[in-house]
Amino acid sequence: MTADLHCLLDEATIGDRVASLAATIDRDYAATDLMVLVGVLKGSFIFLADLARRLTVPHRVDFIAVSSYGDRESEDASGAVRLLMDVRHDLGGADVLIVEDIIDTGHTVTYLRELLLARHPASLKVCTLLHKPARTEADVPIDYLGFTIPDVWVVGYGLDFAERYRTLPYIAELPPDQR
Ligand code: IMP
Ligand code: MG
Q: Does residue 129 have its Cβ closer than 6 Å to ligand 1?
C-alpha cells in the first residue's frame, strides 16, 4: 500500500535534524524555570516524542487539539480554526513552546499564538518540523524549523491523509491521484 510512495525525508535525515533542533532549544532554554512543550494534536505526536526525549533541559509536556475548517481534505477552505481540546495545565509564567508538525497556510499557529498569549506565559515560541512557504496566508514567526518543503501533500511521521499513513517512520509525498 505504501511501497510506491515517494520518500521526501528518510528516518536518518529526520533524526539528525530533530537532534540538532533539540540541541539549539537546550541552549536557548538553559535558564528556564518552567518550560512547557505544547504539542498540537494529532500531527505532532511523533515529532514531539522524539524532540522531547532529546532535550536535557527540564520540561513538561502538554497537548492541545484543534481542527481547521480549511483542511484541504474538506471542501471548505475558510481558514477558521476550532479548539477541540485545551491544555491541562496553567501556562501563566511558563516558557511555552508550541510544537507543530507542519505550518501550511499559517492559520492554525496564528490562532494558537493568540489563544496561548492570553494566558500570560513568560515566553511563547513556535517549533515546527515542516513549513510550506508557498501556501502562506497568515505570516507566523517560526523560531525553530526542521525543513522547508514544496507545496505537496506529505504523510508519515505523524502526518496523515484522512487518518492514514500517520505512523510511517519517514515522510513521504502523497501524489494527487492517491488522495
Ligand atoms: P495551517 O493552519 O494551514 O497552517 O495548517 C496546519 C495543519 O494542516 C497542520 O497542522 C496539519 O494538520 C495540516 N496539514 C497541512 N499540510 C499538510 C500536509 O501536507 N500533510 C498533512 N497534514 C497537513
Ligand atoms: Mg497539525
A: no
pLDDT at res. 179: 86
DSSP the chain: --TTSEEEE-HHHHHHHHHHHHHHHHHHTTT-S-EEEEEEETTTHHHHHHHHHH--S--EEEEEEEEETT-TTSS-----EEEEE--SS--TT-EEEEEEEEESSSHHHHHHHHHHHTT--SEEEEEEEEE-GGG-SS----SEEEEE--SS-EEBTTB-BTTBSTT-SSEEE--GGG-
Q: Which of 44, 48, 101 to mutate to test the pocket of ligand 1 (most atoms within 8 A of CB)?
A: 101
List, as ranges, residues with CB under 5 A of the ion ligand 2. 40, 43, 101
Mean pLDDT by 10 residues, the chain (179 residues): 82 98 98 97 98 98 87 63 96 98 97 98 98 95 98 97 96 92
Which architecture does CATH list for 11-152? 3-Layer(aba) Sandwich (3.40)
User: What pLDDT sits at residue 178?
Assistant: 87
For the chain, what are the domain ranges? 11-152
